[in-house]
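assembly run, all chains below
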Amino acid sequence: MQFEESRILDVLVVRVHESRIVADVAAEFKTGLTAYVTSGKKRVILDLSQVTFIDSSGLGALIGSLKAMGAEGELALCGAQGGVISMLKLTRMDKVFRIFATPEEAASALSLRNGADSETSQP
Amino acid sequence: MVGRFDAAAKGRSNGAVLGAAEREEQYPPTCPRGPGLSSHPGTNQHGKSVGGYVKILLVDDDPVARTIHAMLLQMQGHEVVEAADGELAWRLVEQGNISFVVSDWMMPNLAGVDLCRRIRSSDLDGYIYVILCTAKGTQSDLVEGMDAGADDFLVKPISPEELRVKVRAGERLLRLQQGLAEKNRELAHINHQLHSAHKLVEDDLKAAAWMQQRLLPLPAQNASGVRCAWRLRPSGYIAGDIFNLFQLDESRIGVYLLDVCGHGVPAAMMSVTLSMVLTPDATHGSPLKRIDLATGASQVLLPEDAVRELNRRFQSRDDRYFTMIYGVFDIRSSSLRFAQAGHPSPILIRAGKEPILLGSGGMPIGLWPEIDFDCFNVPVIPGDRILLYSDGVTENINSNGEAFGEARLLGSLRDHRLRSLDDLLQYLLAEITQWGSNSEFTDDVSLLALEITENDVLS
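ok done. output:
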């Protein structure tokens, strides 16, 4: 599973290159995403624009990564469409993750430079 | 060639170990052990010579040449069987005891090259190495011989050294073939063991599936005021989905359908546990009721409260969770109250109206301890139908990767709305199966349909 990294403003954006995040790849997805989290990245934007479907295992992995991030960090989502966005809404994950349309909007909201975030931790 | 022995052979089993002087004198000598030759000679299960020497079928119509070559081969330590013509040679080969043939080309009855062809086109066990001997080593002979399947050639008059090394080369090939045959036998044995082990696991799963089926509502089970029908198609043997319907008290009926994250054995174990817990029997701490310890009276909890309690008890340590619809039908008020915990929206099918989705979602159970769950009320009248289902239905994809989807589900329910409750599910299941190209479901498929009936409770 490929994770493409980029940076917008001072925020790390990770785009996952996988069309279906389902049972057999969920563990790999979690390991990959959690690696960013546990390596000290306090602000991560997960770009789901390449993803067409997430099943329950995939959602479990996503939530696991969020829990690993802990209270001091933030894992935000962007680019979710179609089945993915409706699944996130059905499970009320929009109350748990901040969900943005584009990585630019997400970065703008999370960036420290905009003063939008009162945390003093570095990205 | 007489008396060529490898010093390294000294001390190996089988055959007397002779002193140098004795070896020179003995005729024919005992089998020499050269480097690369393996264990002592014996026969394998096909009765063919294995190991240190090879039994060679020597075919030649010229008795003088045959005798000389037989002698040479024997001196080189091989057992020789002679045949004066091709047909006789073929009969010996057919008997199945031959793995090496050294044959003259020009012979009456059956030429060497034709004997070779016959050997190659036969279905005998094990490989037979064939060396053809020809008087003139011309290009066309070589090609014809190779085409017929000969492994090697000797040009007459045959040089003893050439004979020795070519026979040895043949031995190497035969040993290789034997090695492969043994490996194949080993593989077949392992395969058989794997098959048996797999069957044990499968039998276990089948037994578990049967157990799980017994937890589901009986086909004719109805509570007064509600009729139900259901279908469960696990993606494997056992399901992470489970559902039930039961009387909670004199005027209330409980119904639920839940889907444990993932599928297979871990999900099924969780679903079975939950089905044991979700009981109307208040005496064993069911989360669906609250007991007043002072009076012993039990009270049916509102769905959202029951689900909150369930969530409190089933916090997962790994990322496992489950989604659920839990509904309480109050016969007196003729209304259903549902808690929707991250599960696909139930569908209301009312006579004369389009089927509609109920509810907008909710958080799944097991992720965070203190959560309030979404709920909604649905007033119902006799004849109304409610369908609960798992996402294995709507997420089922066809060969183009398109999901069955909610729209198609609603359409299907509209098309079959005049059918009996059971027929409705039968047709629906057939459509879902066909959509997925009739192949195995990748996720469990559950359908639970309720129909509100006339009842005598209202007084």
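The domain at 2-100 of chain A is CATH 3.30.750.24 (Transcription Regulator spoIIAA).

DSSP finds four helices and seven strands in chain A.

not gonna interpret more than that til we talk
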